[in-house]
Specification:
The complex is a heterodimer of chains A (384) and B (323). With 384 residues, chain A is α/β, with parallel strands linked by helices. Chain A contains eleven helices and 14 strands. In chain A, helix 2 runs parallel beside helix 10, helix 3 runs parallel beside helix 4 and helix 6 packs across helix 7. The N and C termini of chain A lie far apart (50 Å). Helices cover 5% and strands 53% of the residues of chain B. The chains are: A alpha/beta (384), B mainly beta (323). Chains A and B meet through helix 2, helix 9 and strand 11 of A and strand 15 of B.
Chain lengths: 384, 323
C-alpha cells in the first residue's frame, strides 16, 4: 500500500513537472493534389508551412530558456484528407492542447468542431475562405492565414489611392479562383470601383506560345484602368501582364500581388526573421510558412507574457483585448474577437520589390485602421 | 576605395590636423550605402563620406576619440577606423551580424549584440580576441554598460526581455520581461537607473538598478498619429538630469520627457523613421538619424525646436560625435 502510494505520488510529481515544463503543439497538413497548369510556375516547396512552424518552435524555445518553458512540435503531413482527420482525432484524444492546421476549408472546420469539446484551440494556417471568417466562425478557431477579403481590400485601397477605378476582372475556373473573384467584387463595391467586365478564362491553347495573340483579344473590352486577375494556381494569369488590349497594369494573383509575406520584406526587423528562416530551411520564407510561424509564436508569446504553460490561462489571454504579437510588419498584431482573424498589414508586391503596404494612408477606423482590411465586426454574420 | 578618394581623405585629414581649432564632427552610419557621412558641426553640413563595410549600424568612439568602432553587420565584423586618417585600420572578431554595441568604461571591452545568433559577444579591443559569449533571447539589439562598468544590459527584440549581464563573471544574472520589441537601453549618468524602450509595445520603462524593478512606465500620444505608430526606439538623457529624448520611429517625432517627473512635455517633428540620437559635446544640440528620409535633424535642446535637417546617405542609422 505504502509503496504504491509513493509510486503514485512520484508519478504525479513527474507528470506535473512534465506538463509544467513542456507544451505540445500539433502541426497537421493536408496536401491537396495540384492540377497541371499552363505556365512554368515554380513548384512550391514540399515543406512549406511546416518550416514556419518549426522556426516558431525554435523561437519560442529561445525565449523559453529564460522562463524554463519548452515547446515541442508534433508534425503530420498527408495527401489523404481522411487520414488527416484520423490523426486529428488521435491528437485530440491524447489531449493535445493546440493544433496548427494547414488544410482546406472543410477539413479545418471539421477539425475545429471536433476540437471544441476539449477546449483545444485550432490555428488556421491554410484556408483563406471568407465564409470561415464571416459565416462559420468558431470560438476555438484563430486564423493566422489572411482571408481573401483582406487581400482584395488591400489591393482595392491601393487601386483607389492610384485613382484606378475601372477594373476588368479576369478569373479562372477553379473553386479558389471564384472565391478570389468574389472577394474582388466585394472590394470593388466597398471602394466604389467599377467592374467594366468580368470574364472567365476558358482557352485551352498553350499560352506559352499563344499569349501574345490570344490575351489582347480576350482583354478587348470597354476601357479599363487596370486588369484584376484571379488565378490562384498561376494557370494563365502569368501571361496577362504586357499582353492586355490596353496597356494597363495587372494586379491580383499576378502582377502586383497582395501577400502576407515575401522575401523582399526586410523592413521592421524582418531581415532577421528572413535570415533565421533561410538558415533553417535553405529556402525563402513563404506566406504559408509565415502563417504557421505566427500561430506557433502566438502560443509562445502568450506563454512568455503569462509565465505559464497552462492552456486555460493562455486561451483566456488570447481571447482578451490585451494580447498582441510582433510580426515584423511594423505594427503590433492582434486577433479580431468577432472572427478570430489575426489583424495584419498586407504588403503589395511586384516580383522583386515591396511596392506598398495597406491599409493605405487615409483609411480611418475608430479602433484600428487594420480593421479596414477584411470583415469588420458589423459585417460578420455569426457569433463566436 | 579608389586612389583619388584616398588622397582626398588624406588631404582632409591633414588639414584637420593642421587646424587646431577644427569643429566637432558628427559621424553617421548609412546602413544602405555602406558609408559614413561626416557632418561638420559648425557649418552643419556633410564634409566627407567614408566607405566602410557592409550594412554599418552601431558606431562608437573609444575614450580618446582616436578610434571609431563600426558594426559592419553584413560583414560579420567590427571595423576599427582611425579618426585621424579616416582609414579602416583593423577588424575585430564580433560574432555574426553585430548590430549595436557598447564600450565598457575600461575603454577595452566591447559588448556586442549579435542579432542573428541570440548572443552577446565580448571582445577585447587590445588583444582583438573574443573573451566571452553569453546566450540571450532572440534578436538582441540594445546594449549598454553601466557607468561603473559592473553591469551590462542587452535587449532581445523577439524575446522581449532585458538581460542583465554581470561584467565580472560574464554571466546572465537576471531577466526582465518588458513590452514587445525592446530596442534601446540608456543608463542615467549616476548609473542608478536605466531607460529602456519597447518599439512595438509603444512604451518606455525606467528600471531601478539596485532593486531590478521597473519604477516607471511611460507611453506616448500624438494627436493625429495612430498609437501603433508611436514606436519608441532611441533614447538620450541630458547629463543635467533635465530631459530624456525619445525617438518615436515611424511617428516621425522625438518625445521630450521631463526626466524628473517622467511626464512627456513636448513632441518635436523630425524626419521620417527617426532612430538614434546623439548630443553635441556641450549638449546644446541633439542630432537624430531619420532612416527613411535619409537625413539628420538638429534639435536645439534649450528651445526644444528643430532647427535644421541635413541630407546624408541612405538609411542613416548610428550616430557618434567627435568633440
Amino acid at each position: 500500500m505504502r509503496v504504491s502510494t509513493l509510486c503514485i505520488l512520484a508519478a504525479c510529481l513527474l507528470a506535473n513537472e512534465l506538463t509544467a515544463a513542456t507544451l505540445s503543439i500539433g502541426y497537421l497538413e493536408y496536401k491537396a493534389p495540384r492540377p497541371p497548369v499552363l505556365s512554368n510556375v515554380i513548384a512550391p516547396a514540399e515543406d512549406e508551412g511546416l518550416q514556419g512552424a518549426l522556426l516558431g518552435i525554435a523561437d519560442n524555445n529561445t525565449t523559453g530558456r529564460f522562463l524554463k518553458q519548452t515547446f515541442e512540435l508534433s508534425e503530420f503531413v498527408t495527401d489523404d484528407k481522411l487520414v488527416a482527420l484520423a490523426q486529428a482525432k488521435i491528437w485530440l484524444a491524447s489531449g493535445m492542447p493546440y493544433l496548427v492546421v494547414r488544410g482546406d476549408t472543410q477539413l479545418t472546420l471539421q477539425i475545429t468542431q471536433l476540437a471544441r469539446p476539449s477546449g483545444t484551440l485550432v490555428f488556421n494556417a491554410g484556408s483563406k475562405s471568407d465564409a470561415l471568417r464571416q459565416q462559420d466562425c468558431q470560438v476555438n478557431l484563430f486564423h493566422t492565414m489572411r482571408s481573401y477579403a483582406m487581400l482584395t481590400d488591400a489591393l482595392g485601397q491601393w487601386l483607389l489611392a492610384r485613382k484606378l477605378r475601372r477594373w476588368l476582372l479576369v478569373h479562372g475556373d477553379k473553386w479558389a479562383d471564384k472565391q478570389y473573384s468574389q472577394a474582388i467584387e466585394r472590394s470593388a463595391q466597398r471602394y466604389g470601383a467599377t467592374i467594366v467586365d468580368k470574364k472567365q478564362w476558358h482557352f485551352k491553347t498553350d499560352l506559352r506560345r499563344q499569349a501574345q495573340a490570344e490575351v489582347p483579344l480576350f482583354t478587348q473590352t470597354e476601357e479599363y484602368d487596370v486588369v484584376v486577375v484571379a488565378d490562384e494556381l498561376g494557370d494563365f494569369g502569368e501571361f496577362i501582364p504586357y499582353n492586355t488590349w490596353y496597356p494597363r497594369p495587372v494586379v491580383g494573383t499576378q502582377g502586383l500581388v497582395p501577400k502576407a509575406w515575401h522575401k523582399v520584406i526586410e523592413q521592421w526587423g524582418a531581415a532577421q526573421l528572413q535570415k533565421r528562416f533561410e538558415d533553417q530551411a535553405q529556402r525563402w520564407m513563404q506566406e504559408a510558412d509565415y502563417a504557421a510561424w505566427l500561430a506557433v509564436r502566438t502560443i509562445g508569446e502568450a506563454a512568455a507574457r503569462l509565465n505559464s504553460l497552462n492552456p486555460s490561462d493562455i486561451n483566456e489571454y488570447l481571447g482578451s483585448a490585451s494580447f498582441s504579437l510582433g510580426g515584423f510588419k511594423g505594427r503590433r498584431l492582434s486577433y479580431r474577437p468577432w472572427s478570430g482573424q489575426l489583424r495584419q498589414p498586407i504588403p503589395l508586391l511586384q516580383p522583386m520589390a515591396l511596392v506598398s503596404q495597406s491599409p493605405q494612408a487615409g483609411y480611418l477606423h475608430p479602433i484600428t485602421d487594420l480593421d479596414t482590411l477584411g470583415f469588420d465586426e458589423s459585417e460578420v454574420h455569426c457569433i463566436r | 576605395m579608389n586612389k583619388i578618394t584616398r588622397y582626398r581623405r588624406l588631404l582632409v585629414a591633414s588639414l584637420l590636423v593642421a587646424n587646431s581649432s577644427y569643429a566637432a564632427m558628427a559621424y553617421v552610419s548609412n546602413e544602405k550605402d555602406n558609408s559614413l557621412s561626416l557632418i561638420d558641426l559648425d557649418s552643419m553640413s556633410v564634409v566627407e563620406t567614408i566607405s566602410v563595410g557592409q550594412r554599418p549600424r552601431g558606431i562608437v568612439f573609444n575614450e580618446d576619440f582616436s578610434k571609431l568602432y563600426i558594426c559592419a553587420s553584413d560583414d560579420d565584423t567590427v571595423e576599427v577606423l582611425d579618426t585621424e586618417t579616416g582609414r579602416i585600420i583593423s577588424e575585430l572578431p564580433s560574432g555574426e551580424d553585430p548590430e549595436q554595441f557598447a564600450l565598457h568604461p575600461n575603454d577595452r571591452h566591447l559588448y556586442i549584440a549579435n542579432e542573428d545568433d541570440a548572443l552577446v559577444t565580448i571582445v577585447d579591443t587590445q588583444t582583438e580576441q573574443v573573451i566571452g559569449q553569453i546566450e540571450v533571447g532572440l534578436e538582441p539589439e540594445g546594449m549598454a554598460v553601466s557607468p561603473d562598468g559592473s553591469l551590462a544590459i542587452a535587449t532581445s527584440e523577439t524575446t522581449s526581455m532585458l538581460h542583465w549581464i554581470d561584467t565580472a563573471s560574464h554571466t546572465l544574472v537576471h531577466n526582465t520581461v518588458v513590452d514587445q520589441r525592446p530596442r534601446h537601453v540608456e543608463f542615467s549618468k549616476d548609473g542608478r537607473v536605466f531607460w529602456a524602450s519597447s518599439e512595438i509595445g509603444g512604451t518606455l520603462v525606467v528600471v531601478d538598478v539596485m532593486s531590478k524593478e521597473v519604477q516607471h512606465k511611460l507611453s506616448f500620444k500624438i494627436a493625429g498619429v495612430h498609437k501603433d505608430k508611436l514606436q519608441p526606439v532611441g533614447v538620450k538623457l541630458t547629463d543635467d538630469g533635465r530631459y530624456a529624448f525619445v525617438a518615436l520611429g515611424p511617428a516621425n517625432h522625438v518625445a521630450v520627457v521631463d526626466a524628473k517627473t517622467y511626464k512627456v512635455i513636448d513632441y518635436l517633428l523630425v524626419g521620417k523613421r527617426v532612430w538614434h540620437m546623439a548630443f553635441t559635446p556641450d549638449q546644446s544640440q541633439l542630432l537624430t538619424t531619420n532612416g527613411i528620409s535619409g537625413d539628420v535633424s538638429v534639435i536645439d535642446v534649450d528651445k526644444l525646436r528643430v532647427t535644421k535637417s541635413i541630407q546624408v546617405g541612405r538609411f542613416p542609422w548610428g550616430l557618434a560625435i567627435l568633440p
